[in-house]
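Loading example: each entry is read as three labelled lines plus one structure line.
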Amino acid sequence: MEIGLNHYLTLSAVLFSLGVFTVLSRRHAIVILMGVELILNAAALNFVAFSRFVAENLDGQLVAVFIIVIAAAEAAVALAIVLAIFRNFQTVYVDQVDRLQR
Amino acid sequence: MHETLSNLPLLSGLPAQVLVVLAMVSAGGIILGCIAVGGMFFIWSERKVAGYIQSRYGPMYVGGWHGVLQSLADGVKLLLKEDIWPEKADKPLWRMAPLLVFLGAFLSFVVLPFGPNFVGANLDIGLFYVMATSSLVVMGVISAGWGSNNKWALYGALRGAAQVISYEIPLGLALLPVVMSTGSLNLGTIIQAQAGWIHNWHLLNPLFFVSFWIYVISSLAEVNRVPFDLPETESELVSGYHTEYTGMKFAFFFLGEYADMFVVSAIGVTVFLGGWYSGIPALDVPALFPLIFILKSFFLVFVQIWLRWTLPRLRVDQLMYVCWKVFIPIALANLLLYGVIRTVLS
Amino acid sequence: MISGLIWFLFAGVSVGSAVVVATSKNVVHCGFGLLFTLLGVCAMYAFLGADFLMATQVIVYVGGILVLVLFAVMMTHRIESNRLRDELVQPVAALGAAALVFGLSMLMITRTAWDEKVPGEALPTTSSFGRAFLTDYLFPFEFASVLLLVAMMGAALITREKKEEEDQ
């Protein structure tokens, strides 16, 4: 069986939907972050698949590298914010963080 | 490799795809065998070196000459041991951890260049790939520490993870000047740049010499060896993240650790010590290449064992100080200096 | 044929572990589920001939982001008090939304006539990456490094303990 573009796009769509599900159904801030990582990975996979099957150059892979860079920066800042919230509110559940001050 | 297999008389009738699978399986088997035999040899030599450093003999009885088969006997003992797990362990993670640690070592072995045509996979990104596989070991360590449901194991795992991801930075930065000089991440190409007399070895270039020492010391931290063995300190954390493991699972951790020691030594040999070249052009015949490469790597492994029985252990804050405030600035300055010199000279 | 089977194996691993991320009640299990999803995507990059990207994925995601995530999980809980749980809230609505997203993308994928070409031999990409980063993509490359520096400083600033305020 030949693996073509549609296989990759379908896989990516599945991962993207699971990421959306995770972001929508969770309250734990770090799990929501994991859902965001799933979504970013699905997008990067699409870029790389298109760069191989349609564009036939490296541009898609370069975009995927920048996605990974952004994901790293986002994870660092988001986790720092989670730690700060935990210090101030003693919780990591986003629905319990509903006050503007301690 | 599957072409070689198809030439064997017994297998010539089989379809190509079956042969590909057979080739994959046998390549995996060969690497697994190398890791097992090498690991057992290193464990034996560690005990012998420790013995002689402490004015005793070490294992002497099993296998006749100087107890060479001691590790084999220990291996059989570990295989036959009862598999005990903590009652409140997080079972999936606990079971997965030894496999992840071992997988990291196993995957690095694939690219080690024992000779120009004697390499599992001649990847274009070889050096980068080896750095990547060590990340799997970190996940295995965290998984072991968390899954054991034991505070010593968790402390050990967190220390180990923090240490390994910190020391990956000076390790990578130390290798970069050599990569700039050879213009390739392929391990074979890096070795071929050091052909000829011994003065072509990267070690003897003054800037690479600095890199080499940063690499060697960081690699000790990377494989959790003394003086950086904080994750498994026997005297305070009762051997850290693999406290709760017995039998075969413990054997996997142990083998993975010794295989990792060999991998970092082999990468050091590849990048700085001329790889499979002996330093004397007359001795560089292809038949000797794997032997020279393995002997040099064994020497670096021996240095690691030697240090373990010589140096005391560092504290966690000293460990992090050395990494972030000494090695990373020196490695960055070294990289910059090499880039400037290279630009000026060209 | 065999490479197709191996492809489905890796695709199955990434989808299965993504399901673990989406549904497991234990936060640490979610983290390790994410590990296998990332490794599955990494295998996909290998199938797509993106060797440099594959190694980058493992180093940055597995060695960096995931370790950071697990550290954060362990630092934001009292380990003894078994609070590492996260129940699913509004699972039906979330499932509906996710199914809608999936349906729309599948509709898009099947209805569009992609200009799909038969790819040639996968070549090593590292040197082309280097050239692209220092020529056509120089500005995004430098911008990304500045972004990383700012993110690092910001993260350090946010997490730093404020000693004088805690005296109140």
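The longest helix of chain B spans residues 16-53.
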